[in-house]
Amino acid sequence: MGRPLQLRTVVPDDRDWIHELRHRVYARELGQHAPRPDGRLSDGLDGDNVYLVVTRGAVRVGFVSVTPPWAGRFGLDTYVQRDELPLLCEADTFEVRILTVEPEERASAVAPLLMYAALRWIASRGGRHVVAMGRTEVLGLYLAAGLRPVGRTVRCGAVTFEVLTGAVDALTRGVLDRHPAALERLRSTVDWRLDVPFAPGPDGCDHGGASFTAVGTDFRTLHRRRRIVAADVLDAWFPPAPEVSAALTDDPSWLARTSPPADAAGLIAEIAAVRRLPQEALCVGAGSSDLIYRAFGHLLGPDSRVLLIDPGYGEYAHVTERVIGCHVDRLRLRRADDWRIDPRRLTEAVATGRYDLVVVVNPNNPTGRHAPAADLRAAIDAAPDRTRWWIDEAYLGYVDPKDAREAEETEGAGDAEGDDVSLASFAAADPRVIVCTSLSKMYALSGLRAAYLVAAPDTAARLRRWTPPWPVSLPAQRAAVAALGEPAYYRERRLQTRALRHRLALELAELDEGVLVDEGIANFVNLTLPAGGPSAAQFVHECRRHDVYLRDLSPLSALYEGRTVRVAVKDAAENARIVAACQAALDVLVPPVPLPGEPVTGTVR
Question: DSSP string of 121-156?
Fold first, then answer.
């Protein structure tokens, strides 16, 4: 049995119907606008809106409009000054407007479906806030969805509206918690054609790793891994050092059956020796995520206020906002600044003294930009004493020390994680600073999960008290100790990664003149599709047809405008597959445009 309703984004043939229905409802039925001789109603936002359309069979029955923040203006701007509603100035605020349904469908599921679809589309583009104008006669529909009045009434023609707002996470949780049965009924009756899944993940966060789902999370089809390019996750493209492999294969049955040292004392001692850090300043965990959840759960509460960098690693927003319930603000990076952190803006934002914690991922994931350690130290020194800083250096191993020294205009050096580029030594002596470092990324140990943090001894001791025994498995401890003893091997892998990354960036940039490629400094590049072209989600979907998995960055930040994907650096052969898949996706999604009087040839667009 077919599904009676279909939901999709607008196609060109829909436009005339939308304008006719808008005139029929808002001019003739409601009197919001004066009737027009042509029987059509549109406005200046039509070129910037995204319309979602519902059909029943071949008949169009309703639509809703979403205005993204990158349009630069909202319909509400006509009625409300932005200083009256500062939410309109936020880069992650989206406007839902002109929810319109044919009269015979107003008692059906069409209106709730359109509202839910708008919410899912907004979430998939990094939206965190929604604004809308709800007609007073149907205000209950909006209130039932979780939107709340701000106390501002707007009148247009014969129609009165309430200005409404809502947080995307709260609205989504409300639907899932209060209306699960209705949501399942919608799922069963609609042919969902949007480029976002019908429902969010179980915890509301996109943790990535779709490539492993394709391999098979039950581990019964692991042979598939040989044909899949997992460029959606930032695992190392190279194997661990030979000494690490030898440590893991020398007696694997013993490693599997034996309990590790309960306090990971040997691993901690090796980290302290290699990094020249005091052992009492260290705390280890099964990967950075383990340390993030453990430390944040201990240091923060629902009353805490946190400053995140946007765009930034999504787990920080997830744990602070969704898990703990902190008050979270964001320092927005700017494309015009090449996505770099402006130390002046950071210092000014923190100087207010309102933040309990500031989180900086350096190098940043997903922008790939590295902030000089001297700039961060200066910002920390200028900050109020009550503000704690969490510096995530998971990708610092990919930073070339020479590049970092040139950026900081300093002389003298060490390894990539030496004092001139890392804040680890600084954190060991300053009670306001914690540095978190992964042993998974640069050491090719992602499957084993090992990481450590550096903090002042009192802070590290508090966190160790909240650390269970045996926090890192025996294979992970054994491998990490071996890896720390092979700096020459990993230094060579860093240089190879840099060369592979640069070539991959060049080849991707040659695919299409409308494609923008950011190389960054870590083990990935970002590819931004042209405005008005396919979405990042569509592009990722097309690449998967070729068993190439990329990461859609849209849910992480609205600043990416739904157009940017992250591509992990792989070896030369897999990088070639990535480039070929991207070319094939562009050929499908952005068909070549022939020159006048000539047949279609090549990839001229």
Answer: HHHHTT--EEEEEEEGGGHHHHHHTT-EEEEEEEEE
